[in-house]
Amino acid sequence: MQIQPFTALTPDVVLDALGGIGLQGDGRLLALNSYENRVYQVGIEDGPPLIAKFYRPERWSDAEILEEHAFVAALAEREIPVVPALEISGHTLHAFNGFRFSVFTRHGGRAPELDDSNTLEWMGRFIGRIHAVGALEPYRHRPTLDIESFGVETSAYLLAHDFIPAELAEVYRGVVELALDGVRRCYDRAGAVKKLRLHGDCHVGNVLWTDAGPHFVDFDDSRMGPAIQDLWMLLSGERAEMTRQLSDLLAGYEDFYDFQPRELHLVEALRTLRLIHYAAWIARRWDDPAFTVAFPWFNTQRYWQDRILELREQIALMDEQPLSI
User: Do residues 191 and 313 share a domain?
Assistant: First the structure.
């Protein structure tokens, strides 16, 4: 039987891990909403609460984690509103009882109002600043968002491990092949697109808004990829609405970084890859009890029927004209 990755991460282990780097908890421990890793708000004696993030074993190497830490630290040094890992005794990554963890200051905030033009322009400015730094040098250890890893390998995993009901497996196989063909055509139309270090998962849940503006959090999925990856997830609604939102974002973005219009060919392709990858992400974590509780509808016939319909809609969308600016 597979050993669950976080079974041994008890509250005592969390507090002992922090105590080992000189942070004495006061007993207050609040689990925060995170499935991939385990994240806690920890009360600290003689200080404000801190956030402790315990990394999922075997997902990232030490080099990959430290590379992300260095990127976020470089952003913070330029006064870009991100939350870097705290350096304690000269290190941002620590280990205790087989777990690796980092510590962060606590930042509150609310979800940004994406129907407000000023909010979108403000966010666009900071994403542009993030990309201006991300383009200075490449990641050497972290992966690249590409068709093979996000689409081909993930769909093959789902089919090989029998997550799809038998009566739908061949239908899914055919639809996902057509979807990936559509993704390739979009990439062909986009041509040579520059890849840079990204936030990687820049959706509304990873932006905390205050009166001082946005804070971008959780760079755990940071990787190399096209700039549009950090913009398209902030677009929603009908085509006209997405066009307006994109215009507002780029009004701020291009103050700091030049946007390549041909990347617009990738919006629906990247959405398609994310849909395939997301289903495989849940499947690969299905032995983790947190996932069976959080996603009880996964692996049902209705779930896969919906995914097939979703991919069919994406196949049609990828053959439409891209958004215009």
Answer: yes
